[in-house]
Write a structure and sequence with these properties.
The protein is of the alpha/beta class. The protein has a single domain, classed as P-loop containing nucleotide triphosphate hydrolases (Rossmann fold, 3-Layer(aba) Sandwich). The chain contains 12 helices and 7 strands. A 7-stranded mixed sheet has the order 3-4-2-5-1-6-7, with helices on both faces. It is globular. The relative contact order is 0.17. The protein binds adenosine-5'-triphosphate and magnesium ion. Adenosine-5'-triphosphate (ATP) binds next to α1 and α9.
């Protein structure tokens, strides 16, 4: 049964899509079956895995949300084995308004995704930069919320309203919703302000900040223009290694998402509370860097 993670922050440009695409690909590299759902009309997650935003006659997330087509009909494979995408489409721009007039408008994504859950280990939803109806749909469909936070001066601003929105959704629409955690993105260890912001975030949200920190890395910003997750673009880069480490940390937290064989081996050691570290190429358990998945 898939764990559904919504990647949410109403601030623009904080690394939501980069995190959704590369965490999804890194989980798939660990042979988890992953569905990446592009709920942003900008369609960056779709293009990030090589799928154009204009799908022509093909169904997209828009048709699944409006109940016009089964979501299964819209799902496409990607270049990464085990990674599938439910792409965005140009129509999604108007969906927020169209949904207002629809019955159970907050539940549309949940209804579309629920039948798919048994086919995946993880479903990651990339959200637009707002707390509008599309994001509310993601929060209703999700088990957990993953919040990318850029290490800059205003990082914590807006987090309060996001946490209040999560509380409201939990109280009224999805009582099982939990905060998965905060991922610090675009971290530059040479920058004093970034280090201070990291400390502030960790003291404000004790135990909820991932130990893996995503560094600012040019490979992460180049990969989307090639329509590829960074593990297929430059596996050796710090960006690729940091998202592989994030996937590993997430799997450690969600032992349920691991294989029966791994379960039998017992729980993995976990980061207890915030453990700051700038993620450079981190040695994996084996001491080896992971190699790119091949078809
Ligand atoms: N760790 C990183 N290092 C360098 N560049 C990054 C990193 N993470 C993201 N970027 C770049 O920063 C920009 C914003 O990132 P991204 O699109 O992931 O943010 P977003 O939160 O999804 O934005 P939006 O709110 O518009 O959807 C992109 O150009 C992306 O390539
Ligand atoms: Mg985005």
């Amino acid at each position: 049964m898939a764990l559904v993670l919504a990647v949410v922050n109403q601030k623009g440009g904080v690394g939501k899509t980069t995190t959704a695409v590369n965490l999804a690909a890194s989980l798939a590299a660990q042979e988890k079956r992953v569905l990446l759902v592009d709920l942003d009309p900008q369609g960056n997650a779709s293009s990030g895995v090589g799928i154009g935003r204009d799908q022509g006659e093909r169904p997209t997330i828009y048709h699944a949300l409006l109940g016009e087509r089964d979501a299964r009909a819209a799902i496409l494979p990607t270049e990464v084995p085990h990674l599938f995408v439910l792409p965005s489409g140009t129509d999604l721009v108007g969906a927020e308004l169209e949904l207002v007039a629809v019955d159970a408008r907050e539940n549309r994504l949940r209804s579309a995704l629920d039948p798919l859950r048994s086919g995946y280990d993880f479903i990651l939803i990339d959200c637009p930069p707002s707390l509008g109806l599309l994001t509310i749909n993601a929060l209703v469909a999700a088990d957990r919320v993953l919040v990318p936070l850029q290490c800059e001066y205003y990082a914590l601003e807006g987090l309060g309203s996001l946490l209040r929105t999560i509380d409201l959704v939990r109280a009224n629409l999805n009582r099982d919703l939990q905060l998965e955690g905060v991922v610090l993105t675009m971290f530059d260890a040479r920058n004093n302000l970034a280090r201070q912001v990291m400390k502030d975030v960790q003291s404000n949200l004790p135990g909820q900040v991932y130990a893996t920190v995503i560094p600012r890395n040019v490979r992460l910003s180049e990969a989307p223009s090639h329509g590829r997750p960074v593990i297929l673009y430059d596996i050796e880069s710090k960006g690729a290694q940091s998202y592989l480490a994030l996937a590993e940390e997430l799997l450690g937290r969600h032992h349920a998402g691991t294989t029966d064989e791994e379960k039998a081996a017992g729980p993995r050691p976990q980061a207890s509370g915030p453990r700051p570290q700038a993620a450079g190429p981190r040695p994996h358990a084996s001491g080896q860097k992971r190699s790119a998945p091949t078809r």
